[in-house]
UniProtKB/TrEMBL annotation:
Residues 184-194 have a biased composition (Basic residues). Residues 89-117, 126-183 have a biased composition (Low complexity). It comes from the Bacteria. PANTHER family: DNA-BINDING PROTEIN HU, DNA-BINDING PROTEIN HU-BETA. Keywords: DNA condensation, DNA-binding. This is DNA-binding protein HU-beta. Signal peptide: none annotated. Belongs to the bacterial histone-like protein family. It comes from Yinghuangia aomiensis. InterPro entries: Hist_DNA-bd, Histone-like_DNA-bd_CS, IHF-like_DNA-bd_dom_sf. Pfam families: Bac_DNA_binding. Residues 78-194 are annotated as: Disordered. The lineage of its organism: Bacteria, Bacillati, Actinomycetota, Actinomycetes, Kitasatosporales.
Amino acid sequence: MNKAQLVEAVQDRLGGRAAAADAVDAILDAIIRAVAGGDRVSITGFGSFEKVDRAARYARNPQTGERVRVKKTAIPRFRPGQGFKDITSGAKKLPKSGSAAAKASPTPRPGTSAAKKTAAKKSAAKKATTARKTTAAKTTAPATRKTAAAKPAAKKATVAKKAATAKKTATKATAAKKTAAKSTAKKTASKRAK
């Protein structure tokens, strides 16, 4: 896929070819400027772009075999995100509609604040689940003598609670992504102003 094909792929979502071309140009320009300035551009679920310095070294000319000195330089590097890797490898299926980058559940890198927050959320969810189970066990112990019709109702209630919790978590994740996008936009705007 080249740039023109990328514009064609997103033009339906953005309301026309001109808007899509402007959006693609703006995104690529922002990424290039940030990486050239030494910043790391991280797009959740997709990957990260960063500037990497290469030291001066010696190489060989493949035609003559002569030893040649290569100067110190800086190059851009792209590292795909876990969600992108999973979809590419086939571990996860590509969503039929919507954004593939948004659907891919990113795995935060160990040691980052995002990883710590995720771990805290998981431990809080485990504690809440354990508390619910013990409370449910205490309240439903006498109910075991009742008819089997009470069990499906309890399962439906549990499924509804899990769905509500998942919806809240998804909403929080979306809010976090928007906040990260705003801070990135502010940084690029301040650098342009300088």
